[in-house]
Design brief:
There is one protein chain. Strands 3-4-5-7-6-8-9-10-11 form a nine-stranded mixed sheet, with helices on both faces. Strands 1-2 form a two-stranded antiparallel sheet. It has helices at residues 7-22, 39-44, 59-74, 151-164, 170-175, 200-209, 214-230, 247-258, 274-277, 304-309, 329-345, 365-378, and strands at residues 31-32, 35-36, 86-92, 96-104, 110-118, 124-130, 180-184, 235-245, 264-268, 316-321, 352-357. With 383 residues, the chain is an alpha/beta fold. It is globular. α7 packs across α8. It starts with 6 loop residues before the first helix and ends in a 5-residue tail after the last helix. It has one domain (54-378): Rossmann fold (3-Layer(aba) Sandwich).
């Protein structure tokens, strides 16, 4: 022992030296590629125990349990508020009319929507059109249905359709085919803003602080919009589809899984497995926009294709792009194969269709026409 050091100081220094040496046993990295360094270990724990397997004997019971779990994790309460829909404005677009409507989406939110109604004798098939994310918040419903009376939104929406939809509005194109079409802003877009890219995580966090969930609110509101559309006198009973691109595609398969109001659905460029998305560089790891599609704890029970499979055996059409840099093609194929097995278990393999397209993250006119031809075969045409 050093003769000039008090005993307590000597042992304190020895302890510090021991701690310094122990540092070599501590993992060097805590965070890597925006993920915890232990991500591989966490991934191995994602066994998705509520996913369909060949051992499922009672398909309706499996679906009911899965639905109940998803609803539980949305943190939302059942909603039965009367819609009280009112028409604010209407213009003639030839074979159909375009309406600005307002209605009670929930007991707390009265919102604006755009609705297209064919002329002639109904009732007609219908489509709930679900807008994408795209980091563009000044327009939501206007990405899908041509707006009027607002020059700024018209210009913004035209630029959007040029970029992703071959220069046309997908909702108006479907209305010309004889469908009632409804589009509503998700929270943060269009009339329900303003939201910015930087504010998304704060909005998500504060939703949790209020005992709710940003993704959960979107799920509930989409289900309510589907119920509203199905209840319109111009809409044929049991002939309502959900159609969406990108985040709208996520919303389409989700609402089809959760709502009996949806009879068929079209998904463009949003499907993959968690394994395929949780890779360095993927958009899902950047935070911000991912909050709209993440229900807390859901991935402990069901993967994305498992949730979509809760919609079986409804007719389903999926498209993915070989060059889509947001949803890796290999992962999309894996997800499609998993879902196809569920439709097969329901003895309805012909009701599930999935295609890999050569393009990127887009919903081009040829794809729109193919999707709408498919819808005609499923819920459209004379009945």
């Amino acid at each position: 022992m050093h003769k000039h050091l008090p005993l307590w100081i000597f042992f304190s220094l020895m302890g510090c030296a021991g701690l310094a040496g122990a540092q070599t046993d501590v993992a060097a990295a805590g965070v890597r590629d925006n993920m915890p360094a232990i991500a591989p270990a966490l991934k191995r724990k994602l066994t998705f125990p509520m996913a369909w397997t060949a051992q499922v004997a009672d398909l309706p019971a499996w679906r009911a349990a899965g639905r109940a779990k998803v609803w539980e994790l949305t943190l939302q309460q059942p909603e039965h508020t009367p819609f009280d829909l009112r028409v604010l404005d209407e213009i003639d677009r030839g074979s159909y009319v375009a309406r600005k409507v307002v209605f009670n989406l929930t007991a707390d939110s009265r919102v604006a929507g755009l609705m297209l109604v064919p002329k002639g004798r109904g009732p007609f098939p219908a489509a709930l059109m679900l807008h994408d994310h795209g980091g563009r918040f000044d327009i939501g419903k206007e990405k899908l249905i041509e707006p009027w009376g607002d020059a700024a939104r018209l210009a913004s929406s035209k630029a959007w359709t040029d970029k992703y939809f071959s220069g046309r509005y997908p909702g108006d194109a479907l209305a010309r085919r004889g469908y009632v079409v409804l589009a509503v802003d998700a929270l943060g877009w269009g009339d329900r803003g303003p939201l910015t890219a930087d504010a998304q995580q704060a909005l998500a966090a504060n939703s949790f602080n209020l005992g709710s969930s940003l993704a959960g609110m979107m799920a509930l509101e989409d289900a309510r919009a589907a119920e509203l559309l199905a209840a319109q006198p111009e809409v044929a009973r049991g002939r309502v589809a959900a159609v969406g691109f990108s985040m709208g595609g996520f919303r389409a398969w989700q609402v089809a899984a959760l709502s009996d109001a949806i009879a068929a659905f079209v998904v463009v460029n949003w499907m993959a497995t968690t394994e395929g998305l949780m890779v360095p560089g993927n958009n899902q790891l950047k935070g911000s926009s991912a909050w709209h599609m993440l229900h807390p704890g859901l991935l402990r029970y069901l993967d994305f294709p498992d949730v979509a499979s809760l919609a079986a055996p409804k007719p389903a059409l999926f498209f993915a792009g070989e060059q889509d840099d947001l949803f890796p093609a290999a992962s999309a194929r894996t997800a499609f194969a998993r879902m196809a097995r569920v439709w097969g278990a329901w003895k309805a393999p012909e009701r599930f269709e999935a295609y890999m397209l050569p393009g990127r993250h887009e919903f081009t006119q040829p794809t729109q026409e193919a999707a709408y031809d498919w819808l005609d075969r499923q819920i459209g045409g004379a009945r």
